[in-house]
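TOPIC: backbone geometry
CONTENTS: sequence, structure tokens:
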Amino acid sequence: MKRRQVILGSAQLGLTTTLRWTVPAALAGIARQASGESGPSKPRALPSADQMAWQDLELGMFVHFAPSTWQDSESDNLTTPLSEINPRKLNTDQWAQTAIGLGARYIVFVAKHLGGFCMWQTETTDYGIRNTPWRGGHGDVLADIGTSCHKHGLKLGVYVSPRDDHFGAKTGGICKTAELQARYDIMYRRQLTEVLSRYGELVEVWFDGSTITPVSDLLVRYQPHAMVFQGPSATIRWVGNEDGFAPNPCWNGIDSAEAKTGTATSLNGNPDGDVWMPNEVDVSIRRPDWFWSTKNVKKVLTPEQLLSIYYRSVGRGTQLLLNIPANRDGLLAEPDCASAKSLGLDIRTRFAKPVATTAGHGVEVTLKLGALTQIDTVILQEDIAKCERVRQYRIEGHAGGTWHALGEGTSIGHKRIQPVDRSPWMRCAS
């Protein structure tokens, strides 16, 4: 087993001179087989280079913006006159700056939600931003956010809903008749071609609810490196809830039969699965509402609630996609931005400057600190390029001539943020 990383958090709770973490002896054979050190074994899931690069991003920002915003609704009821959609103050640089303050490395923009309204200059339908007064019908929100992402060093992703209530396509893009289905497939493929080919490299493409319209060839042609959420070409999977947390344990592997469904939501995953499909945790800052409304400002999550979500998502090896919706002016509201900024500051304060780090291989990794050192958090990471091999771990700290158990768990994967149990530290320090 190679390159297991240990990082100590900087908050001040306990005392130790040496820290070690181990894999139980009973599991060492599994680890050696997985790394090819001891005989043949069942093939296990391996990530692609694109998947590993995506997992390194860790934190992204979702932006929901649609006619629902003008309706105080979570679902576009198709009643808003297009003449009323005019976000005069729209400023995607503000969106990007909010993402940076949060600590996000990418933005996924909802370019088309379930109602079918298109936030770019599409030629496929009249139900879109080009038929509104905004910028005289020449505005393109997707182009704006793409420019802002490039300007501020962020990656761009898109949500292009296969469902389209304006057309009459249900979840998955399913239409009532074969004739309507053929028409919609043509339209949706044209929409997707516009989005995939006009706005530069995309890091992620969302097909919420999957799609029966053939799209794999378009993804290969225009965005071969993008992660795909649901659909026949899916490379990442939904965590299975919108509450902001991943299960524990949370393995990256799943079985191929589930991967082929296009809507894989295997909660814990399978450490012996043969397809690498990491989880993405999506949650809204105005939980459970995805869209801004005049009625949900009191739902904005506090920095403390957001930090708990961070520990239970990124801290369990998954990706966190935090939604901050735009209001009718085209801006992210101040309460949302303030809470997101506080979370970003808290993350940087806790983790930007670790007390100490080390890396190693084998069934035990030891970190000598040289003197009594105060810690409260241990971050563990695997070299996932060689699959997910750790099935169980134990963390111990040495102080007062004795090893004390600090924490234990199962999956590590890309990252495991392990809070340290305070009680033994209080005994060690006394």
Q: What stands out?
A: Confidence is low (pLDDT under 50) at residues 8-14, 26-40, 424-430. The CA atoms of residues 117 and 128 lie 5 Å apart. The radius of gyration is 23 Å.
